[in-house]
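Contributing: when you submit paired examples, paste them exactly as shown. First protein:
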Amino acid sequence: MNTQTPRTGDGTIGKALDVLDLVAGFERPVRFSEILAVSPHPKATLYRLIQTLTNLGMLRYDVDRQTYAPGLRLVRLAHAAWRQSSLAPIARPFIDMLSETINETVHLAQLDAGQVLYVDKRNAADPLEMFSQAGKVGPGYCTGVGKAMMAFLADDARALALSQQSYFAHTAHTHTSAESLAVELEQIKVDGIAYDREEHEPGIICIAAPILSDAGRAIGALSITTSTARKSLTDLSALATHLKTTARDIALAAANWQFPSQ
């Protein structure tokens, strides 16, 4: 796990959200000592925040195991957010159909502070082991969906998103600078298609398309993901029409809903 930089202007609410992020990031029940080891907050401050969050039902404390986990109140809020703010409920029948048609894994994602939030996923009949799962956050700069969405940001929003990337070289194919990524984003905006060329995980490739609002802003992105053992990038290119059609169908279905656009 990565440690966090303390928030300077968000007060107690910001600190509490930091703690929720830390606990959720472990993806398992976690002891206070483990949270303390990665928290930027002093022990007394962290303990007070955790107690408050537990009293409010945002965290749950297991007395027998002495561990903390996301509480049921937080789970309810997460489900409400999924229904009201994510494309997932509207997109579900479309990504079901796409996955069945092409028999490959389909991802649905939205952009959050320059990073990719996977909001839904459909596995192929023979699923692959990969990082992306619904609810996980991935990098924007080395994923097909991330690049597809960033390409259609307004100039100032795109500049901000470029500055929010780590540019860590996950593989030999990863962009390691904002300059090289910006060049590709311009081409993606022309083509309406983005690729992950083994940029995040070795052997994993994808083709992605933005889901665009009437104003031409990305409200999400859709990808078809496979492995180099199954298909080539050329093979994926042949699926571009299926992908773009599904992305347009989702955009039309979402037109009467208000989703965060970038």
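Second protein:
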Amino acid sequence: MCWSIAAADAAGMFDEIVVVAAPARLGAVEAAVRRRYAAVRVVAGGATRTASSWAALDATTAEIVAIHDAARPFVTPSLFARCVESARRDGSGVAGLPLADTVRRADEAGVSVEELEREGLWQVQTPQAFRRDVLDRARARAGDRSFTDDAAAVVAAGGRTRMVQGERRNLKITTTEDLGYARELVAKELAAIAGSTTSRMLPR
């Protein structure tokens, strides 16, 4: 979470940063955030991802809103900036990667039944940035429905979303295997930083 805050702060694109936390963990999250980022506000989320997005929308008056999943801790400041710039220009900017692998549909037994055309298919990430009026319209039409992400809510309301080239390192940590890979990435990054610092300190 704090890594994502650091990236958003370093992007230099935001007037404020709001963290949405599960009500049961609100105190713990707020304490963790306050230790590093006194200006960041922490608010309670809802029972679903979509409800938490609406809670974030209620917590700000910003005209451009970027929503990011803290389960993607390796987001970069430049990716935040690209999504925000797209939202300013086109109303939305959704990070993602064009699919490079072959995609097949399988039945319940795991038997391949068809190969899908991958051209034009994207693997969607966050951040997802929108003009406020785009999110307000999606919210008004969503009712009590929940969506897998904010782009889906916008599309369900009849809107269109603009894809922005994401980054492979912007992975989502959802499994134990993901966590192991993330730890390896952190170790490599820290080793690289340490090596760079040491080289600068070496006498000529």
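If you have annotations for the second protein, write them as plain sentences, like these:
The CA atoms of residues 59 and 180 lie 34 Å apart.
The chain is about 45% helix and 20% strand.
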